[in-house]
Write a structure and sequence with these properties.
Layout (H helix, E strand, L loop, with lengths): L8 E9 L3 E3 L7 E4 L11 E3 L3 E13 L5 E12 L18 H14 L3 E5 L11 E7 L2 E7 L19
Antiparallel strand pairs: 1-3, 1-5, 2-4, 5-6, 7-8, 8-9
Length: 167
């Protein structure tokens, strides 16, 4: 703020109004005196409720003039508010600490998350013939049946066998 008036301002208080921002919309710290031609700085703790190129922040400055009369001055500042960055996660999932049943449930969730349909968890039954999860994947030729075996190895080789079974 800059005092461009005819005399010093006393007990200057800044507050916000409107519904574009939330947070501490109460009064800020009081600037006891602001001389003519001088600048004053104070802070307001607000958080935007939306994002965009021109979000209006309405400010109200209330102060006493050189004669002791209470005065107000309102201003609207348009702010650019960007989306916050997504939270960074660097947590390591302790696969080695999961029980075999919990690890299979994690695999089941991953298969469902990848868009497979009619997902069925066979691993807990004990007689799954190497199939822990069975699911269907949509394809141009219809649905394909997929079998998943859940294994926790520290490393695997690149050789793999894929069996295509006909119904």
């Amino acid at each position: 703020m800059r005092n461009e008036g005819y005399g010093p301002t006393h007990n200057l208080v800044v507050s916000t109004s409107g519904d574009q921002f939330e947070g501490r919309t109460a009064d800020t710290d009081t600037i006891l005196i602001l001389q003519v031609g001088h600048k004053g700085t104070t802070g307001i703790d607000v958080h935007p409720r939306t994002c965009g190129d021109s979000i209006p922040l309405r400010l109200e400055m209330e102060y006493e003039d050189h004669a002791g009369e209470r005065r107000t001055c309102e201003r609207t500042i348009n702010l650019t508010v960007a989306l916050p960055p997504p939270p960074a996660t660097t947590h390591v999932l302790p696969f080695d600490k999961l029980s075999p049943a919990d690890f299979e449930r994690l695999c089941l969730w991953l298969v469902e998350h990848e868009g497979y349909t009619r997902v069925e968890h066979l691993g807990l039954a004990g007689n799954e013939q190497g199939r822990d999860v069975v699911a269907y994947k949509p394809s141009p030729q219809g649905e394909e049946l997929w079998y998943f075996q859940c294994k926790r190895y520290r490393s695997i080789s690149l050789t793999a066998r894929v069996l295509k079974l006909s119904p």
